[in-house]
Amino acid sequence: MSPYDPVTIGIVSISDRASSGVYEDKGLPALREWLSRALKNPITFVERLIPDERERIRATLIELTDQAGCSLVLTTGGTGPAPRDVTPEATLDVADKEMPGFGEQMRQISLHFVPTAILSRQVAVIRGKSLIINLPGQPKSIAETLEGVRDADGKPVVHGIFAAVPYCIDLIGGPYLETDPAVCAAFRPKSAIRPPRD
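Structure (tokenized):
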């Protein structure tokens, strides 16, 4: 039996073309691969590949949080300024609380790589005991925003957003997430750190 809490994580790729089979979806494999490396917890993934439709996105987020019991839901795609990009609107539709720091930090990270990062509109929200975060659409950008920016010696220049995710989930009553520091070191106040279980 694992010494770490099991966690159910929803991963949602939002794309008209990938969901209709025009091209292969790369978002779900990228999310699955990164989370499997970053977390020591046993993970049950609940995956959805859906089109850019506000009502469909909204219903999917409600299903994953309220019915599937996902403590964390990560979406990829649909966060730009194009007419069909409605992921942030659908995410805000289901929110109990908005967590603006996540979106601010993602844009800060992406600005290290491209000036068009200011066009991204990712949001993060709390719904019940679940944290929902919109991530960029490209696999490379997904990893960058989750992990952050490091210098040549591997020291963080800008912290990735995932460093704050485990403590956020603690605060809303979810499982205790343990990360692999080689991928992403989670930050918690000393009083919130749980001693290792055998």
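The CA atoms of residues 149 and 158 lie 5 Å apart. Residues 54-67 form the longest helix (14 residues).
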